[in-house]
């Protein structure tokens, strides 16, 4: 039988293991995004805009999963939850929602690129 101290130690261990791998969502700027792209070899860049929007262009290396697609939550299951993910949309609104969905799905590190595609294009001019 586990004593009182053993029970609390076990409880503490379970809680810490449950929360240690998932971090909060970090909002990043264009400068921070460029640094991550240069330094993170396993980085996933996720464009959550619609196909009509991505036809205008896409950030190099990004994959596209439309946030408005009813199958969004199923489609993100194909991504590796252990890899850091930068989420972006046109201007930052949908990416924040999608970042919360990734965070809820236990992705280990989620970045919300709040400047969005328009901010990326503007910074590159």
From TrEMBL:
Residues 39-124 form the Rhodanese domain. Residues 1-20 form the signal peptide. The keyword Signal applies. InterPro entries: Rhodanese-like_dom, Rhodanese-like_dom_sf. The keyword Signal applies. GO terms for molecular function: thiosulfate-cyanide sulfurtransferase activity. CDD domains: RHOD. SMART domains: RHOD (SM00450). SUPFAM superfamilies: Rhodanese/Cell cycle control phosphatase (SSF52821). Gene3D superfamilies: Rhodanese-like domain (3.40.250.10). Pfam families: Rhodanese. Keywords: Signal. PANTHER family: THIOSULFATE SULFURTRANSFERASE RDL2, MITOCHONDRIAL-RELATED, THIOSULFATE SULFURTRANSFERASE_RHODANESE-LIKE DOMAIN-CONTAINING PROTEIN 3. This is Rhodanese-like domain-containing protein. It comes from Fulvivirga sedimenti.
């Amino acid at each position: 039988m586990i004593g009182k101290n053993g029970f609390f130690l076990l409880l503490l261990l379970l809680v810490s293991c449950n929360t240690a791998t998932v971090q909060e969502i970090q909002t990043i700027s264009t400068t921070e995004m460029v640094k991550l792209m240069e330094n993170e070899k396993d980085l996933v860049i996720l464009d959550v805009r619609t196909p009509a929007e991505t036809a205008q262009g896409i950030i190099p290396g990004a994959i596209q999963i439309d946030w408005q697609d009813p199958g969004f939550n199923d489609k993100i299951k194909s991504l590796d939850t252990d890899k850091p993910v930068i989420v972006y949309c046109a201007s930052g609104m949908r990416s924040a929602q999608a970042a919360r969905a990734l965070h809820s799905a236990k992705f280990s590190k989620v970045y919300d690129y709040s400047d969005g595609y328009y901010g990326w294009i503007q910074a590159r001019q």
